[in-house]
Amino acid sequence: MTPTELGQKKRRLWRACWRVMNDPTKSVKLARLARGVAGEYVAYSEILLSPDHDLIPTMMHECMHAAYPHWSETTVRRAEAFLMRTVSLRSKRIFLKRLVEFL
User: Fold this and answer.
1) Least packed by Cβ within 10 Å: which of 15, 24, 68, 82?
2) Which of 21, 81, 79, 24 shows the shortest CA–CA distance to 54?
3) For 21-73, what is each residue's pLDDT tens digit?
4) Alpha helices in the chain (DSSP H)
């Protein structure tokens, strides 16, 4: 991929996360989940996050599930890893602030 294509991919995925975060029909809650489960996307309306895991990558992961329900778990994991690698620290801070408002 060229640098331009990588930038476009990052913007597309990042926008998808923000669309889900700003969707009034979605709710985010902290909940104790099964051992080893960091997050869960429930019934197209609720995202459950475990406080025992990293919130930013988990929320990005669950946002990918919400934005692209037809994607496989492997594709979602790759998208999450790509975003965590390429998004700036400043953007992650802003994302975390928004997530805290959501809770």
Assistant:
1) 24
2) 81
3) 787 777 777 776 766 666 666 666 777 777 777 778 888 888 888 888 888 98
4) 3-21, 55-67, 73-86, 89-102
Nearest Cα neighbor of 96 from 28, 36, 44 is: 28
d(CA 10, CA 16): 10
Chain center to CA of 65 = 8
Q: Token pair for residue 72?
A: 């496989």
Can you name the CATH fold of 3-102? Arc Repressor Mutant, subunit A (1.10.10)
The pair phi, psi for residue 41, each rounded to 5°, is -100, 115
Q: Which amino acid is at 40?
A: E
Distance CA 68, CA 18 (A): 13
Which residues are paired to 48 by β-bridges? Answer: 29, 40
Which SS3 state, helix, strand or coil, does residue 13 take?
Answer: helix
Cα angle 25, 22, 62; round to 5: 80
